[in-house]
Amino acid sequence: KDNCKELFWTITLAANNGTDATSEKVSTWTKGITLAGVSFDYTGYTFADEWCTSDNVCFAEGQTIPYSAFASDTTLYAQWTPNTYYVKFNSNGGNGSMPDQEFTYDKASNLSANSFGRPGYNFAGWKDANGVEYSDNESVINLASASGSVYEVYAQWSECDSGYFCPGDNVSYSCAIETNNSHTMSDIASA
Fold it and tell me: Quick one: which of 23, 46, 123, 185 has the most CB atoms within 10 Å?
């Protein structure tokens, strides 16, 4: 050891779109570098438990990498998986049901078309708890960032003009037809 020159490579652990970065030296006299998990944050993403070079040579979290694995100073980039979150549709006084819709962070998708109904009312879009409005089937992105989180939107309703039926209302009615001073019921229909 006294007759040999110790050589060092600097291994930089880069956040790769996350925040911050750290570096560590690895030498011929050490066993190498053991890759830990990340201390970085990347909104909307979860660390994928591996680090990769720019040439896509990857190493797993917890793996010890020897000096000989590198030919020069090297940067390893944290790998990230986009989080999945859900949109919950609240009927807000309407009837029917709609399943929660799955979304992926940083990927735009359309909200499910409304399938709720409310007699005497027209559907007028969606609104979240903070008053942010969305139209039916609107393309949205990044409504939530935490993995598995739920973002709730509430159906908005506008009352129909008095005396008129709204589109989609199911109304049964009957008509009385007078014949020879007696009444018969006919024309039972749905409108």
Answer: 123
